[in-house]
Sequence to fold (400 residues):
Amino acid sequence: MEMAPYLLLGMFVSGLISIFIDNSFVTKHIGQKNIFSIFKSTLFGIPLPLCSCGVIPVAATLRESGASKGSTVSFLVSTPQTGVDSILLTYGMLGPIFAFFRPLAALISGMFSGIVINHFDKGDHSPAAPSRSKSDEPFQKKVFHGFKYGFISLPSDIVVPLFQGLLVAAAIALFIPPDLIAEYFSSNTYLQYLMMLLVSLPVYVCATASIPIALALLIKGITPGAVFVFLMAGPATNASSIAVIKNILGRKTLYRYLSLIGFTALLFGVFLDTFLTIDLSKIVGQHQGHEMSGPWTIILTFIFLAILTNAYISRFRPIGKSSKKIVEDLEVHNEQINFNVIGMTCSHCKESVEGAVHSVPGVEQLTVDLLSGKVQVEGKNIDKSVLIERIESKGFSIKD
Fold:
């Protein structure tokens, strides 16, 4: 109920952003290897509602299109930490200090990480020409895609981790004794920082789903700074994205990337506990004593649940053409390639794979199943080696 109004507004604004800002727009502005490109890549990444998995194919596209390693890493660091939806929800559930500090930390950590990476990267760099932009599409079509993204694609990406986050938060509230943190961890805040960092780096949690978990941890006695370490490092990376980043940027850049995320998360956590005062009693009291307030709350809650239900069901809908139509096409084209793509986790991943496949000469029809990873390609004279190369350049791998 508390999430509904903030996330509905966040979905609407995210849809508006997707209308005017796409990969080609971002690529156009961050192609150079300088501090200004790093600043712009960080700034562009903050409002985009991409998770640590969804940001990977976008970052791969940026890198392939000519973005420097520093600009790519700054985008990878800043983007998953925040989004319009998560910033609004942070304000609603954790208060204005957390809501202001999250994007500020994403901006500073993204800038710092990009500058460090460019300092160590001595390779040559030449930006590529930007690809076709959404500005070439009719306005009505852009609006349709924007609302589709805001209320279908984005919810389908966050619905599972969001409910997983709610379940984890409920489990923390139910099963961790109230005095456990105070008895064993309150005397050593640095241990809390380290514990939050070690838990958050390999675990997949999006910026939105991390908020109810953070609230439960605050109620149990974890310091605001330690909770912020989780809010910052948790969405920024996970075990599956780590392997993909190594393929895109290399092993040395991966190690620096992880070190920079850990260092900046700890730094901001310590800063928050040392210099900022957060009234935990107000946050805890607000959410422990929350009750229904008016018909609009109930109406927005049902709308929110309807959107999430539709988003979850859409994950199981067939993608592509009907089996009958595919058979008819095969009788004409007589060429079909079937394989599995490893690493697709959200709609952004799916769109990245579709873009890579459609860029291969000879491809006429394509079916992509996000849940199973199965891809069916139809056409004439398709070069399989080029097909594999285009998909792997986005950070994915091919099986069978």
Q: What stands out?
A: The chain has two domains: 3-288, 323-399. Strands lie at 336-342, 363-368, 374-379, 397-399. The chain has 19 helices and four strands.
